[in-house]
Amino acid sequence: MKAEYKTKPRNAIIEYLKEHADTRFTARDILNAINSGGEELDRSTIYRNLERLCKEGELVKYKERDINAACYQYSENHGSCHKHMHARCMQCGKVIHLENEILREASQKIQSEYGFDIDYGKTVIVGTCNKCREK
Amino acid sequence: MKAEYKTKPRNAIIEYLKEHADTRFTARDILNAINSGGEELDRSTIYRNLERLCKEGELVKYKERDINAACYQYSENHGSCHKHMHARCMQCGKVIHLENEILREASQKIQSEYGFDIDYGKTVIVGTCNKCREK
DNA sequence: TTGCGTGCAAAGGTTTTGCATGGCA
DNA sequence: TGCCATGCAAAACCTTTGCACGCAA
């Protein structure tokens, strides 16, 4: 079992995540935000911490068609995120956690008709959220 | 109206697409395949043609969590792909075109409960296909 | 002949990696 | 003190872009 240290850079990164829960951000977003706040931390530190947080299940990593950097998304209730689907607004990046019930019937049909097993944690429904549609 | 030429490099790329319909590939896959077949064409030619085919609606571009290059997917029946959802096997990359009926009820619920409008063309359900589950 | 497509080279951006140093436990 | 995490620098990728040339129409 590997020991884990609490360090200032890592804490700053985790603080950023909590302030940006349920929204999309990139490694560069974190870098810019933290470094403009006075501290100076390196790109590699960001990447190494994000990778570790993903492995620990604290963070979700995904890629978006028109953004050439990887996107990350953090949730307070991350523990159950692999069990339900998510919908992401393609305009603002906001992530909605969907109840399982809504999709149960559809996923059963997809299973029986196509023999396809859905991975809820990795599937992200893309569309437009309430607020962005009104704009 | 811009004229369009038929060239040898472009034909080679389109031939590759047709041979790899409903599967995932990257720009590098195409480059390697064509260049190992004797011909020599440049990266930029690949990228420019893929971009053009995407604009023309012949090709779908997307990004996958664990692949750091953009992925592309070609279908013979591409014309209707923006109207229905797709499911993609995360292991082999195979794409299945889903009937709309299956998901209509679920998307109506998502619309009414969350105010979220699904974009069928951009949404890709992730999971495991028949063949890969048996392995 | 016209002008689109290609090849070449260079550049920009993200992400990874090796290594020495610094700091937490 | 021991060992993990960080910073730094370099490198590996993918992708885009400018420019001159070749080739399809």
Question: Topology, pairings included?
Answer:
Two copies of one chain form a homodimer.
Chain A (H helix, E strand, L loop, with lengths): L7 H12 L4 E3 H10 L6 H13 L3 E4 L8 E4 L11 E4 L5 E3 L2 H15 L2 E2 L5 E5 L1 H5 L1
Parallel strand pairs in A: 4-7
Antiparallel strand pairs in A: 1-3, 2-3, 4-5
Helix pairs in contact in A: 2-3
Chain A binds a DNA duplex (25 and 25 nucleotides) through α1 and α3.
Q: Care to describe what's here?
A:
The structure is a homodimer of 135-residue chains. The first copy, chain A, is an alpha+beta fold and 135 residues long. Chain A has two domains: 1-80, Arc Repressor Mutant, subunit A; 82-135, Ferric-uptake regulator, C-terminal dimerisarion domain (Dna Ligase, domain 1, 2-Layer Sandwich), CATH 3.30.1490.190. Helix content of chain A is 41%, strand content 19%. Chain A is built from five helices and seven strands. In chain A, the strands form two sheets. In chain A, strands 1-3-2 form a three-stranded antiparallel sheet. A three-stranded mixed sheet of chain A has the order 5-4-7. In chain A, helix 2 (27-36) crosses helix 3. The longest helix of chain A is centred in the last third of the chain and has 15 residues, at 100-114. Chain A binds a DNA duplex (25 and 25 nucleotides) through helix 1 and helix 3.
